[in-house]
Amino acid sequence: MFLRLLFLHLVLMVSLCNGDLWASGTYEQLKTVYQQTRSATEDVIYLRNNDVLRGEVLNQSLSITTPYGEMTVPLRKCAGVSFEGSRANTESLATVNFNRFTGIIRDQVINFRISTSNTVIPVRKEKIKYILFKINEAEKSYLKDKKTDLFLMANGDLLTGLPDTTEIVIVTDYGRVPVSFGEISSLEMQGGDNVTAIVKKKNNDVLKGVLETESVGVKLELDLFIPAIYKDKFSQVNIDDGMSRVAAAFNVMQPQQGESDGALSKSITQQDEKNLVIDLAAGAKLEMVFIRPGEFQMGSVYGQGEEREHPQHKVTITKGFYLSKYEITQAQWHSVMGFNPSKFRGDSRPVEQVSWDECQAFTVKLSEKFGRKFRLPTEAECEYACRAGTDTTYYWNGNPDVEYMWYDK
Fold first, then answer.
1. Which pLDDT band holds residue 249 (cuts at 50, 70, 90)?
2. 173 by DSSP, 3-state: which?
3. Is residue 255 reached through a cis peptide bond, with omega within 30 degrees of 0 on the bond before it?
4. Rounded to whole angstroms, how far apart are CA atoms 243 and 85?
5. At a CB cut-off of 8 Å and minimum separation 6, what does 108 contact?
6. Residues 6 or more apart from 315 whose CB is under 8 A from it?
7. By three-state DSSP, how is residue 375 classified?
8. How far is the C-alpha of 157 from the C-alpha of 300, rounded, in Å?
9. Per-residue pLDDT at 257
10. How far apart are CA 105 and CA 93, in angstroms?
11. Who contacts 9 (Cβ-Cβ below 8 Å, separation ≥6)?
């Protein structure tokens, strides 16, 4: 497996864990938010000037505006709140049941009682990096293994709850097909004006077509409701096992410390408007190229490609991203992971003999090292970059050419 990297503020990794989350020890994840440990006795505010305040937040709730809706969350259902992404409108609210909402926190002032003096002071959110809320016993009620769905949002947010509708409608090339949520195992959305849905059913059948259903409301586990979320705001929905999946994804996907859109790390050099060079270690560097947003026809026309690539459909890439210029080399892999699993050795050769899980571990280590979000590209992002603005079978023309590829005639 060759590995390409995508450099963005969002990372996507969902793995499985089973059973009662409290009893299985997954509660340890909830104790750590924004790489800091929550207290069992007091709320803690970390300020931008590096001061720390300990005591109690007196606000009864926190309100946030996200790309998919507005919510007001009771304070003691919050595990933490980060204002570090304020310049990019990516402030973040983490809840006690591993949900995360990203957007703009509407509360301008946090009222805080300092524990040592019992003094109450107002603190403007512009002064705050993040707040960790104390652990409370009521959180146990949200950590039981229960039937709930996981909604992975297009901006990387995590929601657990249930849809307010019983079915969606998919338009295929052979007709209009209603699909019950009870039949679905997972649902993946690919963006654009006409959102394409890939439905994996519980009986292992796969259905692919344009999602006709324009919006779905979500009843969150926290007794909140988000009405009419437009279809392009979803990335993926996992049915029934949301609680186990969200716990596994939470720590991997939470924001890194430091401004989300602040200055680049000293190890990251912006060569020009189209390129980044990242100094990994031991002389290894990672070149990344900026891919501008745009539209393309994804998949293959009938008569070409594999069946799963049909029908060809329009996809819109709404945000630009950085993609590694080359496959990840063995030298780059070794500098991050400390070992080289490849069979065909050579520092400048692509790394191989690596699993999907190992690739995820690689992106996590990069994210932690540089304070930025690295992840694997989606299928749509990869095809969009490879097509390079063309609509032919290959980016050079419609025919194989030994100048560009190896192939058997």
1. low
2. coil
3. no
4. 27
5. 124, 125
6. 190, 191, 192, 196, 295, 296, 297, 298, 380, 384
7. strand
8. 31
9. 32
10. 8
11. 85, 88, 90, 156, 260, 261, 372, 373
Give the pLDDT confidence of 110-135 residue by residue, as tens digits. Answer: 999 999 999 999 999 999 999 999 99
Separation of alpha carbons 293 and 315, rounded Å: 11
Q: Give the list of residues 6+ apart from residue 36 with CB closer than 8 angstroms, or none.
A: 44, 46, 130, 132
* Mean pLDDT, range 294-307, rounded to an integer: 77
Which of 392 and 98 is assigned the larger pLDDT? 98
Q: Does the pLDDT at position 62 exceed 60?
A: yes
Residue recorded with tokens 């745009």: 294
Q: At which residue do the structure tokens 């995360």 appear?
A: 100
Q: List the alpha helices (DSSP H) in 292-329.
A: none
pLDDT for res 274 = 62
* pLDDT, tens digit, 9 for 90 and up, residues 2-51: 455 544 323 222 222 333 444 444 444 577 887 788 999 999 999 999 99
State how far the Cα of 56 lies from the Cα of 53, in Å rounded to an integer: 9
CA 280 to chain centre: 23
- Here the tokens at position 402 are 């030994």
pLDDT in tens, 372-408: 778 888 888 888 888 888 877 777 777 788 777 777 7
Report strand pairing: 36-37 vs 32-33. Answer: antiparallel
DSSP 334-352: HHHHS----SS--TTSBP-
Instruction: Enter the pTM of the model.
Output: 0.60
Tell me the C-alpha to C-alpha distance, in Å, between residue 116 and each of 50, 57, 76, 109, 240: 19, 14, 22, 21, 46
Those residues whose C-beta lies under 8 Å from the C-beta of residue 407, and which sit 6 or more positions away, are: 400
Q: How far is 397 from 174, CA to CA, in rounded Å?
A: 30
Alpha-carbon gap, residue 204 to 194, rounded angstroms: 25
State the Cα–Cα distance between residues 263 and 261, nearest whole angstrom. Answer: 7
> Between the CA atoms of 347, 353, 357 and 363, what dihedral angle is there, to the nearest 10 degrees?
20
- What residue has token string 């095809």? 383
Of 79, 212, 258, nearest in space to 158 by CA = 79
